[in-house]
Structure formats: structure tokens, C-alpha cells
Write a structure and sequence with these properties.
With 284 residues, the chain is of the alpha/beta class. It has two domains: 188 residues, Rossmann fold; 54 residues. It is built from ten helices and seven strands. Strands 2-1-4-5-6-3-7 form a seven-stranded mixed β-sheet. The longest helix has 15 residues. It is globular and about 75 Å long. 32% of the residues are buried.
């Protein structure tokens, strides 16, 4: 071979190998109760320790807990259940509730459910993921946190086909849970602009917001009032043994919430982390 051509051909071969789509990797799904899906390498990464809180520590969302737990428990037992969209204010416990529900059902029956997280950016790879999950005997909660769509993003069409309407449809052993700050998964100004600009804007908007209609359960979350905020803080403090007089605890929590300009479960947890750090106590 002509010597000057060899390095060039080798670089071309390496480039072609990198451009070749990754083959789906056969992953043993019995080795963990939670996974993260990586579309680029077509693999499921086990999560040995899920970042979550006990479901009893989620205060002020009793109705939401009851609805989601009943739906999840029916699915775990092999009965019909609905996909769920948990929507509402930031930091109110939407994603925490999904992870806590999975933990509670798993505690009732080991291996009953497997949690699989898919990132918003990888929604288009859902058909590939479902092909893997369809082959398993286990039951899966497919979880997408902070799901929303903007502009001309067409990834929502992949999700619509998976939830309902596709030829294959959603496998019987898979349920889809998503959280979002938006009830219709798209910003209000985008809906209004599209209605006013397009000739048949209403039809276009209906086609996009119909995605949220594919979720059988809409579970709303709203900003908590001050008594509920105190209830959340006190539950965390009692659970982690943070000994502080009730009046002092409330006064400091109130001051913390005022500096953040919000009251929510997330703000309460951030206060508890600060308090535990000041007291020199671990949060275990």
C-alpha cells in the first residue's frame, strides 16, 4: 500500500466506526430496581441508591399520594392502570412522590416494580427503549422528570404514539409517569402566539396539547400555605432528630422562606439541610 495513504484510510475507518449507530445492549434487568436509560449507547445503567425521601415525609399532598399510590399498586399487581402526569408549581414534591411511590410498592413486594428514568432530551428514543422493556417479564415505571416542549420541537409526537395511537402501543408491562410545571406541556405564550399567527392555529394547538390528554391521570400540585410549610419542616426535623424548640424552628423556617420568596417542600428541605449543617448532624 502506498505509505502516504495508509494513515488517511485508517482515520476514515475510525470515523466510520464512530458514525455507526450503537447496537442495543442486552442488560440484565433483575440486578437492580432502578435504571437510567442512555439512548446514545442504547444501555440501561443500574442505580444502586435512588435519591428519594420516605413517602410519609411528603406532607400537604395527601390526595395526590393516595391517587398515585392506588394507580401504582394496581399496576404492580398486574391490573389495568393509567399513565400519570404530575403537574404544577415548582418544588412541591412531584418527582419526589414518583420515586417515593416506587419505593413504597417495592417495600411491599420486592421486585414488583422497576423504575426507569428517561431524560427529556431522549424522548425520541422511546420506541427503542420499549423494545427492550417489552421483552422482560418485570413491570416498569418509565419516569421523565420536568417534561415540556418548546417551539418546533417534534419529539412530543414520539411520546404520543407510545402513550396511545401507535400500532404496537405501550407494552402491558410499562407505565409512563411524567412531571411538568405545565399542565399542557407547552408554555401559555406559545399557545396564544400559535393561535394568533397560523391560519388554522386552533387546529395546530389542539394537536400539540392533545399530548396531555393521553395521560389518564392529571395530578395537580400547588404552592403550600404557611401551616403546611411548617408541617413539612417539623416532619423533617422530627425524622432526622434535629432538636430545636418549636417556636424557634418555625421562626427560622419562616425567615428562610422569606429570603427565598417561596414556600414549598423543596424550600423546606433546603432549610433542613442548612439547619442540620449548623447543628452538625447528618441527614440519614
Amino acid at each position: 500500500m502506498d505509505q502516504p495513504l495508509e494513515p488517511l484510510l485508517r482515520r476514515i475507518a475510525e470515523l466510520l466506526e464512530r458514525m455507526t449507530p450503537a447496537k442495543a445492549v442486552s442488560v440484565p434487568l433483575n440486578g437492580a430496581d432502578a435504571f437510567v436509560w442512555h439512548a446514545e449507547s442504547a444501555r440501561m445503567e443500574p442505580v444502586p441508591l435512588v435519591n428519594r425521601v420516605d413517602i410519609d415525609l411528603l406532607c400537604g399532598v395527601d390526595s395526590q399520594k393516595r391517587i398515585l399510590m392506588e394507580n401504582t399498586r394496581r399496576f404492580a399487581k398486574g391490573h389495568p392502570a393509567n399513565n400519570a402526569l404530575l403537574w404544577g408549581a415548582r418544588g412541591t414534591g412531584k418527582s419526589s412522590l414518583v420515586k417515593a411511590a416506587h419505593a413504597s410498592i417495592s417495600a411491599e413486594e420486592a421486585g414488583a416494580l422497576t423504575l426507569v428514568e428517561i431524560h427529556r432530551e431522549e424522548i425520541a428514543s422511546l420506541p427503542q427503549l420499549l423494545t427492550l422493556l417489552r421483552q422482560s417479564e418485570r413491570r416498569f415505571i418509565l419516569f421523565c422528570d420536568d417534561l415540556s416542549f418548546d417551539g418546533k420541537d417534534a419529539a412530543y409526537k414520539s411520546l404520543k404514539a407510545v402513550l396511545e395511537g401507535g400500532i404496537e402501543g405501550r407494552p402491558e408491562n410499562v407505565l409512563f409517569y411524567a412531571t411538568s410545571n405545565r399542565r399542557h406541556l407547552m408554555p401559555r405564550e406559545m399557545i396564544e402566539n400559535e393561535r394568533s399567527v397560523e391560519i388554522h392555529g386552533g387546529e395546530s394547538v389542539d394537536e400539540k396539547i392533545s399530548l396531555s390528554d393521553r395521560f389518564g391521570l392529571w395530578i395537580g400540585f400547588h404552592n403550600c400555605d404557611q401551616p403546611t410549610f411548617f408541617e413539612i419542616v417539623e416532619a423533617y426535623a422530627a425524622h432526622y432528630g434535629l432538636d430545636l424548640p418549636k417556636a424557634t424552628l418555625r421562626a427560622e423556617a419562616l425567615e428562610w422562606s422569606m429570603t427565598r420568596g417561596a414556600r414549598s417542600g423543596r424550600v423546606a428541605w433546603q432549610f433542613i439541610q442548612d439547619l442540620a449543617g449548623r447543628l452538625g448532624k447528618p441527614l440519614r
